[in-house]
Design brief:
This protein is about 40% helix and about 25% strand. The radius of gyration is 23 Å and the shape is elongated. The chain is an alpha/beta fold.
């Protein structure tokens, strides 16, 4: 997967605060490659920054200002509530937490590879673990270790954990939230607003098992068990299916609306989808980047035939 995604990178849409070298726009002005404006010359300023073309036209001494390219600080938030332990049955079925760990690992690798800082937060109804963002190989290994040991056993309550993170994370930067979205959309929206108020760029990636999206794997009278409190309920799956699918569609629409209202990108990922194609879509612009996705899919198919 990493080999196929090597040409992709992670970019922040908004300006970030940092004085370290990197590839993202900064809110500070400095010496760089992208023009940001002029200001009048003042005694003591570096003469090398004078814009001689402006002087030739207007006989005024002004300094050329450019936007610094800086290092991104990104924190990957993984929902470790009990509902993330659900997955599709079968030899190739994986849980939602397993897919979240895979996505988080790829993001961490790509961030460190492009000399950006990555941090990790494991959350249920509280922040269970928080690794401040760093841009070192040692940090990458630590993130991978924490992901490997993460277990979905907590209580659902991601919005309260995000509100706590908003107070603990540095201003600006990026937050990527990996969750199954088993929350009240309005409550999640309030937490996203808190993060955005801290001028953090936020992305929400909802992870669902294929069974959750179709409800086709169960028929007849079926007993469902709550993965967090053990509560059990028996229902007629065939009669419940259309009601469930309608409720899921409404819930998805409300989650998307809350994210859109707060300037947060919202993506949905299924556990049975090809990871390489999924990551190419997530790392591309909003929508479905057909060219990128198709090319990566072709590479995957070629590799599969070769093996």
């Amino acid at each position: 997967v990493l080999e196929h995604l090597g040409h992709l990178s992670i970019h922040a849409r908004q300006a970030i605060e940092s004085l370290l070298a990197g590839q993202h726009r900064s809110v500070r002005r400095g010496l760089a490659v992208e023009f940001a404006g002029h200001r009048p010359y003042q005694p003591g300023d570096d003469l090398r920054r004078l814009d001689w073309l402006v002087y030739a036209r207007s006989d005024r001494f002004v300094l050329r200002l450019d936007e610094e390219e800086t290092r991104l600080r990104a924190t990957v938030v993984v929902d470790v509530s009990g509902s993330m332990a659900f997955g599709d049955a079968g030899a190739h079925g994986i849980t939602k937490l397993q897919r979240a760990r895979e996505i988080a690992a790829v993001l961490a690798f790509l961030l460190v590879q492009q000399n950006d800082a990555v941090g990790l937060a494991l959350c249920d109804d509280e922040v269970r673990e928080l690794l401040p963002a760093q841009a070192t190989r040692a940090q990458l290994l630590t993130v991978l270790d924490r992901l490997t040991r993460a277990a979905a056993i907590g209580r659902t309550g991601l919005p309260s954990a995000l509100a706590t993170l908003a107070r603990r994370l540095p201003r600006r930067g990026m937050v990527v939230v990996l969750t199954d979205g088993d929350v009240e959309p309005a409550v999640l929206g309030a937490a996203l607003a808190t993060l955005r108020h801290r001028t953090l760029e936020v992305r929400v990636i909802q992870i669902l098992a294929a069974t959750e999206t179709t409800f086709a794997a169960v028929t007849g009278m079926t007993e469902f068990v709550d993965l967090e409190d053990g509560a059990r309920v028996r229902v007629d799956a065939d009669r419940m299916r259309p009601l469930y699918l309608r409720a899921l569609e409404q819930h998805q629409a409300q989650l998307a609306a809350q994210c859109h209202a707060h300037g947060v990108r919202f993506d949905v990922v299924r556990t049975d989808a090809d990871l390489t194609t999924t990551m190419a879509r997530l790392l591309g612009p909003p929508g479905t980047p057909q060219a990128v996705t198709s090319s990566v899919t072709a590479i995957s198919e070629t590799s599969a035939h070769s093996s």
